[in-house]
Amino acid sequence: MLEEVERWLSTRSWSVTDRPLHQILAAKQRTGQSVSVVLPALNEEETVGDIVAIIRHDLMQQVPLVDEIVVVDSGSTDRTSEVAAAAGARVVHRDDILPRIPPVPGKGEVLWRSLLVTSGDIVCFIDADLREFKSDFVSGIVGPLLTDPEVDLVKGMYDRPLRGAAGQGGRVTELMARPLLNMHWPQLAGFVQPLGGEYAARRSLLEQLPFPVGYGIELGMLVDALHLVGLDALAQVDVGVRIHRHQDGQALGRMSAAIYRTAQLRLARGHLIRPSLTQFERGEDGFEPRTFSVDTEERPPMAEIAEYASRKVA
Length: 314
Prior knowledge:
- The chain is an alpha/beta fold and about 325 residues long.
- It is about 40% helix and about 20% strand.
- It contains eleven helices and 14 strands.
- It has helices at about 5-10, 20-30, 50-60, 80-85, 105-115, 135-145, 170-185, 205, 215-230, 250-270, 305-314; strands spanning about 15, 35-40, 70-75, 90-95, 120-125, 130, 155-160, 200, 210, 235-240, 245, 275-285, 285-295, 300.
- Strands 1-10-7-8-5-2-3-4 form an eight-stranded mixed sheet, sandwiched between helices. The chain has a two-stranded antiparallel ribbon with strand order 6-11. Strands 9-14 form a two-stranded antiparallel sheet.
- Helix 2 (about 20-30) crosses helix 6 (about 135-145), helix 7 packs parallel to helix 10 and helix 9 (about 215-230) runs parallel beside helix 10.
- The protein is globular and about 65 Å long.
- Its EC number is 2.4.1.266.
- Its cofactor is Mg(2+); Mn(2+).
């Protein structure tokens, strides 16, 4: 490990207990910064309501840490929107945001568009499929941004048990993302959960970053933030244990291919001969190929979007 990373681990890796809530609230009051929480959601009616309700109770009603909770629904066919709204979130549908640009499927697309419908100086992203959720996830990762002006982006780190077995990283993290980062961006080797969906950043940083529309959003954001603001502006906070649903092996394969493509674009912006992935499923006549595109469309920095610029002026 690079000496720079060892130093970073000792100065930019914290526990949620390092910043008591009263200290975070005092910093928020002193600096006047506002906090938005965004939950990207697609068919999450079983979990989204509990997450919203906990954040609202603990961090809006009990203490004034969070200023708004926005659930961006990217086309749910279940009751995600109704459940989220009943729990106290403002629900916005992806297709209603920036309608002149046709939306495409993908988490990164939703996060990018969320910048247009939130107002916080700090934007905190939380996945909507978490179970046994605790508000520490939010307070833990926004804490450094409120208390330390030199920090621009904070990732949550946690254990991710799989079928009851303890573990640190997810399968795609360990088999794809961590090797890529260690080999090509060794300054980022200290991140425990580089692909984790719980992180917060200053709006002033987010609006300058391109957003891969799909699974590559987390890796792409880390790499681009490193180049834009440097390692010391990035941090991570241990928030305990993350419990969520797990995808099957083929879905993880597609995720891995998209992440690799995102990394490749950042390595060379070079030519990819075949931006697709062929997988196999057993059918009536044996194994049948299924080919998926893994080319990764990206949205430009939000600061370049006219509607966003005009909103800021207004």
